[in-house]
Amino acid sequence: MTEVKAAAGADVPGDLGAEMLGFVQELKAFRSEIQNRLEAQEERMTMLDRKTISRTRAPLSAEADQGAPHQKAFDAYIRHGDDGALRGLPLEGKAMTTGSDGGFLAAPTVAMQVREALNVTASLRRVANVVAVESASYEVLVDMGDIAHGWATEATAQAETGTPTVQRVVIPVHELSAMPKASQRLLDDAAFDVETWLAGRIAEKFAHAEAMAFIGGDGVNKPRGILTHAKAPNGTATNVQIGTIPSGGNGDFAATNPANALIDLVYALGAQYRANASFVMNSKTAAAVRKMRDADGRFLWADSLAMGQPAQLLGYPVLVCEDMPDIAQGSHSIAFGDFRSAYTIVERPDLRVLRDPFSAKPHVLFYATKRVGGGVTDARAVKLMVFG
Fold first, then answer.
1. Which of 60, 118, 295, 358 is packed most tightly, with the most Cβ within 10 A?
2. End-to-end alpha carbon distance in the chain
3. pLDDT tens across 266-279, in order?
C-alpha cells in the first residue's frame, strides 16, 4: 500500500493521503479563483471611479476649455496688441474676425464684471426692467385698457363686449462707447491685473453715461429718458403721458404742510402700481425731504435697518440717483412709480474692445463699445412732482 507523509509528519494510509492531497489542491484552486475575482472586482471599481470623476468634472473642464483660449488670446491682445490668436476664434457661435465689428469681443470675465458693476450703480437700471436682445430694437405690446367683460345669465342673450386697446412700443438700441487708457509699461507688467482694471474703467464710464441718458436722454443717438417723455397735469394726462403733481410752492415745497404734496404724489399712482413703487430723487432733494415731519413730529423718512437695503419714504423705498435735477423752478425733481413696468432698458450682451496704441502715444487707448437703449413703456406706472 502506498503511503504519504501527513503535515504533522505522521504516516497515513494511501487513500486518506490522496483525499487530503486532493483537498489541498482544491483549496489552492479555490483560493486562486477568489484572488482572481477580487482583483477583477478591484479593477472594475477603479474603472468606475475614474468614469465618475471624469463625468463630474466634464462641465468644469468644458467651461475651462471654452473660456481659457479666448481668455489667453484676449490678454495677449490687450497687453501686446497680438490679435493673431483672436482671429477665427469662435465664442458662442459669433465670429471674431469681422473687421466691421470695430474690435474684438471682450473676455467673458471682463464682460461679466462690467455687467455686474452696471447693475449695482445708483441709476434707473436698479429698479427698471432690463432685457437682453440680439436685434437692433425691442418691441413690446402694452395693454392700454381693461379687458372687456360682462355678466351673463341663462335667460338673456350675451351682449358683445368691447375690445381692449393695445399700444406697440419700439425701443431702439444705441452704441455706447468708453475710451480708457493705460501706459504700455503698465501693460507689460505681468503682476498687473489688466482685465480687472479694464472692466472697472469701462464700467465707470458706461455707468455715468447710462444713468444720465435713462433720466434725461433726448432719444437722439441715445436712450430716451423718463423726464423727456410726454408729460401733462395728472388730471388731464392720457395713457401715453406721464402725470405731474404740483409741489405746492414756487420752485420749492409749500411753506406749510410740505409733506402733503408727497402724499398726493403717492396716491396719484394707480393702486395696481403702488405695490412695487419707489421714489427716485437726487441727494439734495433727499436732504430736503428727510427733514419733513408729520403732524405728530415724526420724520417721514426712515433709514434702512439692514445693510444694503434702501431708505424708505412714506413706506416706499428711495433710490438716490444723482442725475435727477435739483429742486428749482419748473423742475421734475421727484419721480414715484413702478419703474419695472414704466421703464424698459434693452441691451445687447456683447462688449467689444479695440486697442489703439497710436492716437495717444506713449499711452494705449482701449475703445470699448456696447449697445444699449431705453424708453418708457407704460406712462401710467410713474408720476412726477413738478416744482412750479
1. 118
2. 133
3. 999 999 999 999 99
Residue 101: DSSP 8-state = G
Q: Where are the beta strands (DSSP E) in 194-285?
A: 231-233, 242-246, 278-281
Using alpha carbons, list the distances in angstroms from residue 289 to 120, 228, 320, 377: 24, 24, 12, 28
Rounded Cα gap, residues 83 and 105, in angstroms = 12
Query: Among residues of the chain, what percentage have pLDDT more than 70?
Result: 79
Nearest to 351 by CA among 92, 170, 65: 92
Q: Which residue has the cell 452704441?
A: 175
DSSP 236: T
Q: What is the pLDDT of residue 57?
A: 47
Rounded to whole angstroms, how far apart are CA atoms 139 and 308? 34
pTM over 0.85: no
The three state secondary structure string of 1-27 is CCCEECCCCCEECHHHHHHHHHHHHHH
The reply to whether omega before 362 is within 30° of 0 (cis) is yes
State phi, psi for 358 to the nearest 5 degrees.
-110, -30
14-40 residue pLDDT tens: 677 777 887 888 888 888 888 888 888
Q: Is the dihedral of CA 180, 182, 188, 192 positive or negative?
A: negative
Task: Output Rg (C-alpha) for the chain, integer angstroms.
Answer: 36
